[in-house]
Amino acid sequence: MLTLEIFSDVICPWCFIGKQRLDRILESDLGNQVELRWRPYLLAPNLPPEGIARADFLRRRHGDGAAEAAHKIPSRVSAAASEEQLTLRYDLIQRVPNTRLAHHLLEWSYASGKQHALAEQLFRAYFQEGRDIGDANELVRASKSAGLNVAALGWLPEPTPKQEKRLSDQLERALPLNISAVPAYVMGGRYMLPGVQSETTFRQIIERAIERLAS
């Protein structure tokens, strides 16, 4: 069984696109040989806990071009999303969230077997519905959509010190693994594949990793 760790942030459009390609691979026989684990990465680590209005975020990044950038999807992202039949509604996004709490929830959800489904719902909530996925209520809503009743299972939106340390430890793993952007895929704890690949390339690399680890 190949452990495939997906370093990602839920406000990363390429991570959403990459998931769609990976899902098709997992639907084949190859999926029976892969165990997934989503890992955290913060694209905007310095945001306040409540996040920031997207207009302000874009103003800081683009200056006078912020208004134009607000509803514009980067051309490469738009083309790749169209290939996957994904509609990205940047026009609905009002806030850029601090995603640390979302990563806590993803880490906590692993034991339930719903982590992969939850990642999908968080991507959809942000990119297709414009929801503030830094908000605990929105995280609970996304969890229910993924078939995970977090209230009944005891998830709390205030992580314990132990949970904070676990998340920080995972975030710090990116540096020695040479991960400076996401998505990034680590196979068997040894082989790192950066960025979104074509489905064919992705499949070939996973197959190669399985063969190498078996030998």
Overview of this structure, please?
This protein is α+β, with helices and mostly antiparallel strands. It has one domain: Glutaredoxin (3-Layer(aba) Sandwich). Helix content is 47%, strand content 12%. It is built from ten helices and six strands; from the N terminus they run βαββαααβαααααββα. A four-stranded mixed sheet has the order 2-1-5-6, with helices on both faces. β5 and β6 form a beta hairpin. α5 runs antiparallel to α6. The two termini are 13 Å apart. The mean pLDDT is 90.
In CATH terms, what is the architecture? 3-Layer(aba) Sandwich
CATH fold field value: Glutaredoxin
> Which regions are unreliable across 5 or more consecutive residues at pLDDT < 50?
none
What topology, given as strand order, has the largest sheet?
A: 2-1-5-6
- Give a short account of the largest sheet: 4 strands, mixed
First-to-last CA distance:
13 Å
**DSSP summary: helix tally:** 10
The proportion of residues in beta strands is 5-15%
Please write the CATH class name: Alpha Beta
CATH-level-4 superfamily name: Glutaredoxin
Fraction of residues in H or I helices: 40-55%
- Shape assignment: globular
Helix-strand pattern: EHEEHHHEHHHHHEEH
Mean pLDDT metric: 90
How many domains comprise the coordinates?
1
What structural class do you assign from the helix and strand content? Answer: alpha+beta
Rg calc: 17 Å
How many β-strand runs?
A: 6
